[in-house]
Specification:
Bound molecules: manganese (II) ion
CATH architecture: Alpha-Beta Barrel
Shape: globular
Number of strands: 12
CATH topology: TIM Barrel
Number of helices: 14
Number of domains: 1
Helix content: 25-40%
Distance between the termini: 20 Å
CATH class: Alpha Beta
Radius of gyration: 19 Å
CATH superfamily: Divalent-metal-dependent TIM barrel enzymes
Largest sheet: 8 strands, parallel, barrel
Strand order of the largest sheet: 1-2-3-4-7-8-9-12
Strand content: 15-25%
C-alpha cells in the first residue's frame, strides 16, 4: 500500500505539500482540479501541471479524488451522453498523463452529509458529527446554508455555493429516480467508460454514500455489501472497483467492515480509513483514528486490506481539529498526520507478523 493524503491544491488548501512530505509517513497525494465543475473536460495541460507541482514537492500523484459526475448522468436525463463523452475524454487525458486511479461517487444532490462541522469533544478538539434528528428537522436548503456557512472560510467539496442555488432544481431532476433507476444509470455510465479504462488501465473506485442510507428521501445505493456486490457483478471488470471508506460504510453499524473488504478482493483500488464514535445508531461523530477512541477495530480493517493483497493508495480520512489548527473541517494537517502514522504502524506490524 502507499500512504497518501488528500490535498486540494495550493490555491485552496491550508496544508502545503512541503508539510505533507515532512510527515514522512505520506508519500502520495490524492488531489483534483478543484475549480472544475462536473461535466467539463479536464484539459491535459492542467492535469500535467498538477502532476508536476506534486512531483516537484517530492511526492507522487497517486490518484484523483474526485472526478465528479454530472447530475444528468446520475439522474439518467438531459445531456447525459454528452457528459459521459466528456468524462471519457477526461479519463483519456488522465491516462495519457499516467494517472490510473479515479475516485467518484454516485450520490444524488448531496455529497457526504454531516450536521455539525465542529462538535466539541471533552478534550477541546472538534470533529464532524451527524445526528438523524438534526437532518429530520431541516429542509435541504437550510442544510446547505448551515453547512456552507461553517467551513472556516473554505469551500467544502460537494458543498460548493453554486450548488445551493440549484437545490430545488436538483430535487426536481431526481423526482422519479428510485434506487433501481439509479443502479441502471450507474450501469449505463460504467459500461460506456470501461473501454477507455481498459485502454489506459484506469481503476474506477466508487466512494460509498455517506451516511449509508437515504437522506431527504433521495435514493442511495452504495451502502452495503449486497449492493456493492451487485454493482461489481453488473459490470464485471476489475477496473470497476471501489474506494473502501470505513467511515462511510461504517455509518451503518450492521456493515461488517472487515468482511466487506474480504468480499471485495481484487476490486478495492483505494482505501479511506478512519474511525467513528457512536452515541447511538444515528448519532455519531468522527473520532481519532485510534481504535480505542471510536467504535471500529482499526487493526482488523487494516488486516483485511492486507489479507486481500491490497496494493493501492490508502489515506487517513477526515481528522479532528486539534492543536488550534484552522483548516477546512476534517482536512487539517495535524490529526490526519497522526492518523497516517498510526495506520503505517498497524500495517508494518501486520506485515511483519505475517512473515513469522
Ligand atoms: Mn471517504
Amino acid at each position: 500500500m502507499e500512504m497518501t493524503m488528500r490535498w486540494y491544491g495550493s490555491k485552496w488548501d491550508t496544508v502545503t505539500l512541503k508539510q505533507i512530505r515532512q510527515t514522512r509517513y505520506v508519500t502520495g497525494i490524492i488531489t483534483t482540479l478543484y475549480d472544475t465543475v462536473p461535466g467539463e473536460v479536464w484539459p491535459r495541460e492542467r492535469i500535467r501541471a498538477m502532476k508536476e507541482e506534486v512531483e516537484a514537492a517530492g511526492l507522487h500523484l497517486a490518484g484523483i479524488e474526485s472526478v465528479n459526475i454530472h447530475d444528468d448522468i446520475k439522474a439518467g436525463k438531459g445531456d447525459r451522453d454528452r457528459y459521459i463523452d466528456n468524462y471519457i475524454q477526461t479519463l483519456e487525458n488522465l491516462g495519457k498523463e499516467d494517472i490510473h486511479l479515479v475516485c467518484y461517487n454516485f450520490m444524488p444532490v448531496f455529497d457526504w452529509t454531516r450536521t455539525e462541522l465542529a462538535r466539541l469533544r471533552p478534550d477541546g478538539s472538534t470533529v464532524l458529527a451527524y445526528t438523524q434528528q438534526a437532518v429530520d428537522a431541516l429542509d435541504p436548503e437550510t442544510m446547505f446554508t448551515s453547512i456552507s456557512g461553517d467551513m472556516n472560510g473554505s469551500v467544502m467539496p460537494g458543498w460548493e455555493p453554486e450548488r445551493l442555488a440549484r437545490v430545488k432544481e436538483l430535487f426536481d431532476l431526481y423526482r422519479d429516480v428510485d434506487s433501481e433507476a439509479l443502479f441502471a444509470n450507474l450501469k449505463y455510465f460504467l459500461e460506456k467508460i470501461m473501454p477507455v479504462c481498459r485502454e489506459y488501465d484506469i481503476n474506477m473506485a466508487i466512494h460509498p454514500d455517506d451516511p449509508a442510507w437515504s437522506v431527504f428521501g433521495l435514493p442511495r445505493i452504495i451502502t452495503n455489501q449486497e449492493n456493492i456486490q451487485r454493482m461489481m457483478k453488473m459490470v464485471d471488470d476489475p477496473h470497476n472497483g471501489v474506494t473502501f471508506c470505513s467511515g462511510s460504510y461504517g455509518t451503518n453499524r450492521k456493515n461488517d467492515l472487515p468482511a466487506m473488504i474480504r468480499s471485495l478482493k481484487g476490486r478495492v483500488h483505494f482505501a479511506h480509513v478512519r474511525n467513528l464514535y457512536f452515541h447511538s445508531d444515528d448519532n455519531f461523530e468522527e473520532a481519532a483514528h485510534l481504535s480505542e477512541d471510536g467504535s471500529f477495530d482499526m487493526y482488523e480493517i487494516m488486516k483485511a486490506l492486507y489479507d486481500i493483497g491490497f496494493e493501492g493508495p490508502i489515506r487517513p480520512d477526515h481528522g479532528r481539529m486539534i492543536w488550534d489548527e484552522v483548516a477546512m473541517p476534517g482536512y487539517g494537517l495535524y490529526d490526519r498526520a497522526l492518523g497516517a502514522a498510526y495506520l503505517c504502524g498497524l500495517w508494518e506490524s501486520i506485515r511483519k507478523g505475517d512473515r513469522k
